[in-house]
Amino acid sequence: MPFAAACPETDRPDLPDRPPQPAARRGLAAAAEKARCFGALAAAGYRRYATYRQAAVAGLFTNIVFGAMLCAIMLAAAHGGNTPGGYTAAQLVAFVWIGQGLLNVVHMWGWREFSDRITSGDVTSDLLRPVDPIAAYAAADLGRAAQAMLWRWLPPVVFGLLVYDMYIPHRVATYPLFAASVILAVVVSFGGRYLVNLTAFWLLDVRGPLMVWGIASAVLSGNYFPLRFLPEWTLWLAWVATPFPSLFQAPLDVAVERTSVAAASATVLVQALWAVVLYVLCVRVQRRGVVRLVVQGG
Amino acid sequence: MRVYRALVGAQIRSQSQYRASFLLDVGFTTLFCAMEIVSVLVIFRVTPGLGGFDVREVLLIAALCQCGFYCADLLVGNVELVSKYVRTGLLDSVLIRPRSSLGQLLALDFPFRKVGRAVQGAVIYAAALWWAGVAWTPARAVLAVVAPAATATLFAAVFVAGATVAFWWIDSGEFANAFTYGGRTFGSYPMGIYPLWLRDVFAYGLGIAFAGYQPALALLGRPDPLGTPAWAAWLSPAVAAVAWAAALALWNTGIRHYRSTGS
């Protein structure tokens, strides 16, 4: 039997020389194994996106050109000591440049990798693996975000610092809060995109949900204009009722110190809540979707 | 011409087969583009003026620029796909046919779903003209019609020139977006707010000042704070013609430079 020979020795359950481990130790080992697997997948995500260097250079050029235009518009709006949305001119400059960098880190748009696999049926091989697809794709996405942080976030911010009179956060607490806020923004963005992709279990073609997500996340995240330019009640509604401000406005408000440390911490907390809500939704919807999954033979 | 009409007709028919999906597509892309104008209005919620222009004036500039942009996007925007053709070698099959390569590419992928934005752009432009309270003269009436056409031609040239980059730099990806979508954003605001280098490159180098700003000044009867003469608005068609000729020359150079993948 050729298959038996291919089987590694250690997989055989009746191996005598391995003493049974206590349950706690086993749980710890399993957790360590999971973390190692998550790390490996994230590293793979990093390397995958680091491959496209020319495209990254082209994208950076575009980010910087757009940044310069948006900066000019914001500075014109803040002309003569005006503080639109409560931001000073220097804060708006920081908002624009940090935002141009974050666009590619948070990566709100155009992700349909998972839905394509659902449509084609390839998702079965994802489900056969010992890692939950949510964790696997989340790990890869965090790796991608880490790569974007280095190559797509840093250059526009440095450009802004060198060429413009940009606000530099002076509170120590801002830095760890910003780091947490960016990570949570990536997680919320991933959760939302994954949820949209999951609709492929029912719809097969996810263009509709993808477009709704695209428009809502463009406008309500603060990407078109800082959300604080809107009337106060819409602001509250957007923050509490939708995850979109958590994608973009949250890390930027933290970075430019628009609010007190306490309010900034609350912002990060809201992001964390949305991350949990979206994760739970992803798990539930995926479970239902998998039940519906019919794989055509072959 | 008959060939092109047949090609475009086939595209329109095939794209409108799945009616619900098609209408959804038209609706959402139109909504997306409305947001560009909405963001101008939102910025004016928090500021009384931009570079000395009030909300009606900026809205006219933006509406004119974007109306032209969406018409250009409808007609030639899909030239962006040329990088895909170059990468896969599909361009070979385009080149061996006895029609112009550019004409074929545009007809082959004619994006009928973008028709919604072009119509919306025109409607918003008409509304902006009305809201701005233009004091109509025969010359201004002519300009109001000529200007969007010139703007569309200019942006069409930018689209074609940007896509040509793919012949030399396949992975250029978002590079052309800086000039196409970037040009749209740039042209939607008064030129005076931009730093000098940006103005040199976009406003006068690419001529985007003539896609919105200069004609809008003439329609409003305002002198330019930057000091260009009033007749500059009438240069728009000439600028557009020069840009289109340059883009075609660039395209032909690109086609000659093209080396097939061999597959």
TrEMBL record, chain A:
Transmembrane segments: 55-77, 89-110, 150-168, 174-196, 208-227, 261-282
Annotated segments matching region Disordered: 1-23
Top-rank lineage group of the source organism: Bacteria
Pfam assignment, any one: ABC2_membrane_6
Record keywords, A-Z: Membrane, Transmembrane, Transmembrane helix
InterPro entries: ABC-2_transporter-like
Signal peptide limits: none
UniProt name for this protein: ABC-2 family transporter protein
Protein species of origin: Yinghuangia aomiensis
